[in-house]
Amino acid sequence: MPLRRLKRDLGFLDLTAIVIGSIVGADIYVASSLSAGLLGPLSMFAWVVAGLFAMVIALVFAYCSYYVPKVGGPFAFVSKAFDDFWGFLTGWSLWIAEVLALAIFAIMFVNYLQYFIPLSFPMQVLIKFLFMFGLTAVNVVGVKAAGRLNEALTLLKLLPLVLIIVAGLGIFILNPAVPAANYTPLAPLGFGGFGAAIVLIFWAFVGFEMGTLPASEVRNPKKTIPKAIITGMLIITLFYLVTNFVIYGTVEWAALAATSTPLVLSATALLGAAGAVIISIGALVSVSGSDEANVLGTARLSYAMAIDGLFPKIFAKVHPKYGTPYMALLIQGAIGFALSIYSGIAGLISFSVFNLAFAFLLACLSLLILKRGSVKKLHGQSVLPWLGIVICLYLIWNTSMFDKFIGTALVVLAIPLYIFFSPKADMHHLKSFFLSEDEILARRLEHHEKFLAHFILLLHRGCRRLRKPEREV
């Protein structure tokens, strides 16, 4: 399968757009209602804290890229700092988190579809099956077409949210009593659910874990990468805050906590039935696009691990006609479908964060090892890994006991799995998935075409075209 390439001379705006595109997706369509049931309007503060947490870990990744300059992603950092076993545990945890995301998006799709068509439980199961295996089939036989469709629908994902933000802020300016009423009291449920809310909200900020850009692809990386990460995370946090400010300002928190489609309630309050229809369509498109992007990436990871003898060989089977890892796609689709029937979206998100936090924890520990003996002195390199470690432990601690028990059991299960399938040769294909230049650039292209980042890149390219005649004069 030929890989499309990004240009290799990335500047500040390019990298900022990539950071945004790696993170912003369909998560915003569900996270607001989950946090409302734990904190009420106080959730706004939790969004700020979760954004800061994600920024710290993203900066740890950026600093790791200095010490492992030709590679990207937590697998690379952990393998370099420790050994392949710990790198395998990192890849294992990321694979579990990505499979859980497939189930989460299937549940979200059904929730928003029910605005148009009320569905019985058997029908919900059927729709989840069609959704999951429809996207699986698209990735088996038509990956290029799926990518073009996702790119074409990018603005359709963005515009409904922009519409809600503009309408909400306009109404708040004209009638400030509306948000004041809905934000009173600010903390109706107290602070007891703060940690659990942070876990659920943090999931909306992740995305950078699937491949940090190598420093060699960026102009002046020592300044550009941290600056772009901080700017991108600030833009994302601001975007999430404004969106949630409108949501909580237009709908009473108890109503938000009771719904699985918070943006539909907000759109109905602001724009009536027409607004609800627009948001529901935008949610369906965004969820489909996010899941489509995750499906192939998750399959490629398990395929690479199987090639290196770390997963059962069945995951390594490639379709003779389409050249895609079809068995990995089918197996993960079946697992995701089974998990989606559970329908406990908050539990799935929490368990996903447990696995992500474990992988991030190993990456933060890696920075402590990688910076030893280095002549490079980076701002905050002594403090950042420790902050990241504390953040990851905080996230793990605030998942449920069930998450911690099952998550720990899966980590323990990975040990005999690694020993049994331990490769005699170097882990070439798994490293290739995370580390090869082509794979990194391909994943970056997938990310930069997503959602808000695509819009920013369009503006950036337009500005470049306007400046070009000036240079020629």
What does this 3D model show about the protein?
The protein has 473 residues and is an all-alpha fold. The protein has one domain (12-472): Amino acid/polyamine transporter I. It is built from 20 helices and no strands. The protein has helices spanning 12-23, 28-39, 43-67, 74-81, 84-113, 121-141, 143-152, 154-174, 177-182, 194-202, 221-250, 253-257, 262-307, 326-342, 345-370, 384-397, 401-421, 428-435, 437-448, 451-472. Helix 1 (12-23) runs antiparallel to helix 20 (451-472) and helix 5 packs antiparallel against helix 15. The chain is globular, with a radius of gyration of 22 Å. The relative contact order is 0.20. The model is unreliable at 1-8 and 443-451 (pLDDT under 50).
What is the highest CATH level, the class? Mainly Alpha
Return the domain count. 1
Order of helices and strands: HHHHHHHHHHHHHHHHHHHH
Largest sheet geometry = none
Oligomeric form: single chain
What is the general shape?
globular
SS summary, helix count: 20
Number of strand elements: 0
Query: How large is the share of residues in beta strands?
Result: under 5%
SS class: mainly alpha
Q: Taking Cα atoms only, what radius of gyration do you get, to the nearest Å?
A: 22 Å
Q: How many angstroms separate the termini? A: 42 Å
